[in-house]
Structures are given as C-alpha cells and as structure tokens.
Specification:
Layout: H1 20-51, H2 59-82, H3 84-104, H4 108-142, H5 148-151
Length: 157
C-alpha cells in the first residue's frame, strides 16, 4: 500500500508559500532544542569521564540553565532593541557555536564554557521562536498580517 501525504489546499495554512519558511524554522528550532536536551543528558556521563570532569559533573547542566536564566534579561532587552528576527538568528548562531565548541572541547573547562554558550544561544532561540509563533498565531486567528517588526530589525528603516 503506497504511503500518501495529505496536502492542505488551504492557501493560508502553515505550509502555504507565505508561511512555509516560518513553519519550517519553528519546527527545526524546536527540534534542535529538544534534541539538545535529550542528547546531552544521554552522553554527559561519558563526556564527563572522558574529559576528566566527573568531579564537577553537575556544572555542565547548571551552567546551561544559569546561562538561560541570565540570558532572559539580555534577550528581552535585545528583542525590543533589535527585533525578533535578529534575536532568533543571533541565538541560533550562538547555539550552533556552543554545540561546535562542546564537540571539539579538549578539556572539561572549555566544555563548560561551551555549555554556557549553548544556554545563552538556546534561550535566545526559544524567545525568538515564541515571539514568531505568537505573531503567526495572532495573524492566523485574527486575519491580520504578521508584524513588520518581526521580519526587519529597527536599523532597517
């Protein structure tokens, strides 16, 4: 029996041309964060042992969470000043940089710095995703166009 995929004929659905990139970005961003949460918890014991960090094992999780908490204030101010798109892109890049740093870390302490970088970037990604989702939901529910501020930072005019 062949597998079929139902495609909505609704021109304003989540995968319509006007919303496709937003929907894919929301799905990929949420999936990246979920994978990070589950993947890191799975491999952390082996990573800590290999890098000699069993004595401060909990710091890997604590620094990530602390960076997210502290990042909330920074991210909130950055959203107002630079716009949601800039916030999301910067957070995504910071998160990826933290992941690469963590994967290539030769020592436990550099790995902990990478975890803090991931936490700050992850918070920025989550705030950006939340703002984008909220704007898209409001636009869909109330038939209003997406906020112009989401797609352009204040410096764009």
């Amino acid at each position: 029996m062949p597998c079929t995929i139902a495609v909505s004929s609704n021109p304003s659905g989540p995968f319509s041309p006007s919303h496709r990139f937003l929907t894919i970005g929301l799905l990929l961003g949420s999936s990246a964060m979920a994978f990070e949460y589950m993947g890191v918890a799975t491999v952390m014991p082996a990573t800590a042992e290999q890098l000699g960090g069993m004595h401060s094992y909990g710091l890997a999780f604590s620094l990530f969470t602390l960076a997210q908490i502290m990042g909330s204030a920074v991210v909130g101010k950055g959203d107002v000043q630079f716009g949601t798109k800039t916030l999301f892109v910067a957070g995504s890049l910071l998160f990826v940089l933290g992941c690469i740093m963590g994967a290539l870390a030769p020592s436990w302490w550099l790995f902990l710095v990478a975890r803090g970088t991931q936490g700050l970037g992850g918070r920025s990604m989550q705030e950006g995703l939340g703002a984008l989702f909220a704007a898209a939901a409001v636009a869909a529910l109330f038939a209003v166009p997406l906020s112009f501020r989401i797609w352009r930072s204040r410096g764009d005019g």
